[in-house]
Amino acid sequence: MIRLFKNITVILTAVSLISCGGSRTTETPNDSTEVKNSIDTSKSVVFYNIPSPLETFTILKISGSAFDKTVLNPTDKMPKYISSFSKAANLGAYSTDLSFCYLYKQNQDFNNYLKNINELTNALSIDGSYGQGVNKRLQDNITNLDSLMAIVTEAGIYADQYLKDNQRNIATATIAAGGWIEAMYIVTAIAEKTQKEDVIGLVGDQKIVLTNLINMLDQFKADEDINALLIEMKGIAAIYESVKATQDKPVTSDKDIISVGNNTSYKLSSDQLKAILEKVTVLRYKITL
């Protein structure tokens, strides 16, 4: 689908540790002893590009949709996340929520989610020595939301690379899945509530993204938690099978307009939207408890 933006230059920057190159592969060392549920058993892994929440939520905001805190994963659920899987999945989910708060300039909520992200990153041991410098920079810029977001984005890119360099591929994939599930829930819930055509279009556009995510996770299906995710995601994908692609009319752009995506749209009926929301809600509940 063709999307238009005025004066947006950095919206494709990833923030939730989920931007992975489609052709990138990583090798697993034979003597690796990584954290349980964080290491893959395959010789090489292919990661797929997953759109960042910032991109998706910017389109959501441009559509005129208002901030809705009720669709976010509450920050007080942190004590429930004990396993490595739940920590990684909700690191992705909370990072998505942080993006939502940032775009709507919800400073206090942003800082609350940032605190949880910092705790989960430390708990998963994926910050490395770099994390100490990040914490100081965050404290120095605590009142400047734009500076905080820039620091978080930089830290996210670092953490993603840290995971790959240490062959913690299941953790990387789980964070990606958690981030996508939370973004999908937010967008689908708002689409159902507002019935805005552009927002429903965002849900339709997830057909290809979901296919890529399933292909990525399928490499780790031997992991019990990942396999449970795959079962639920394939159920959502089954609904998308009946969603047909249409072609948008070409759009002329100027220097102040950036076109994101292509000219393919996936139009959802009200029944399809409702069915997707129901399945996404079930999956999101299982992730966020």
Please describe what this structure looks like.
There is one protein chain. With 289 residues, the chain is mainly α. The chain has one domain (3-288). Helix content is 56%, strand content 7%. It has 9 helices and 6 strands, in the order βββααααααααβββα. A two-stranded antiparallel ribbon has the order 1-5. The protein has a two-stranded antiparallel ribbon with strand order 2-3. The longest helix is centred in the middle third of the chain and has 26 residues, at 169-194. It is globular and about 50 Å long. The two termini are 33 Å apart. Residues 1-43 and 249-261 have low confidence and may be disordered.
Total number of distinct structural domains: 1
Enumerate how many helices there are, as a single number.
9
| C-alpha termini separation | 33 Å
> From N to C, what is the helix and strand string?
EEEHHHHHHHHEEEH
The percentage helix is: 55-70%
Main pleated-sheet profile: 2 strands, antiparallel
SS-derived structural category:
mainly alpha
Low-confidence stretches: 1-43, 249-261
Strand order across the largest sheet: 1-5
Proportion of residues in extended strands: 5-15%
Structure described in brief:
The chain has one domain. α1 runs parallel beside α2 and α4 packs antiparallel against α5. The strands form three sheets. A two-stranded antiparallel sheet has the order 1-5. A two-stranded antiparallel sheet has the order 2-3.
Task: Supply the key terms.
289 residues, mainly alpha, two-stranded antiparallel sheet, 56% helix, disordered N terminus
